[in-house]
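Hi everyone, sorry if this is the wrong subforum. Our group has a chain we'd like a structural model of before ordering constructs, and none of us has done structure prediction before. Sequence below.
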Amino acid sequence: MPDTAPLAFFLILSGAAIGSFLAAWADRLPHGESIVDAPSRCRDCGMQIAWRDLVPVVSWLARSGRCRGCGAAIPRRLFYAEIIGMGLAILAVWIAATPTDMVLGALWLWCLFGLVLCDLSDFRLPDALTGLLVLTGGAMAWADPARGLDDALIGAGIGAGAFLAIRLAYQLVRRREGLGLGDVKLMAGIGAGLGWAALPMVALIAALGAMAMAGLRALRGNRAEGSTEIPFGAYLAGAAALVWLWL
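Answer:
Right subforum, don't worry. Here is the predicted structure as tokens:
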């Protein structure tokens, strides 16, 4: 096996930048802003953020988490996302058996993390991220001698098909949408990456997590009156990451 230290170092450093990018994407979703075309600006004063203030982790620490122009606090979640992005890369490097596994594992975890952030921010799972998750899952299966691309296609089909059936059945019975199409696409990516046999465990962990959080919110009295919407995609993505680590 070749020396993987340079690749590992690159992935870990890239993790901070990718975490920052994903956090910015999630932050812009509720405002309908493009993550590609629109430059980064302070939400308080509107000043465009200079490149020197966009260096992951370093810039936030150097500015004590405040805007250079108006001194307003920069949300800590952006800084935490950069740290988590690095942490996910470290996990991928630690678990991987080959350089290919390193890259695909890091990309897989980053996609899941981005989907968690976007769902928590605006109850949306962008097609770009779910599509990349499907492709990464297929590549993971192709690179695994015990699986192969056929297994990824079967997993994607079962994952998407099962959740599409749940979505349609809920609409038929309750006359309203209970599961978004984004969750269906997300399950296609999870099925491709983990295989069909892992899907029940992912769904179980996600359901238990969502139920536990809903119960905690009820005990604290934080449940908004009349609001029952749950970012279930975030729980599915988190559960998929846990199952991937376990497998």
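For your construct planning: The chain has a mean pLDDT of 90. The radius of gyration is 19 Å.
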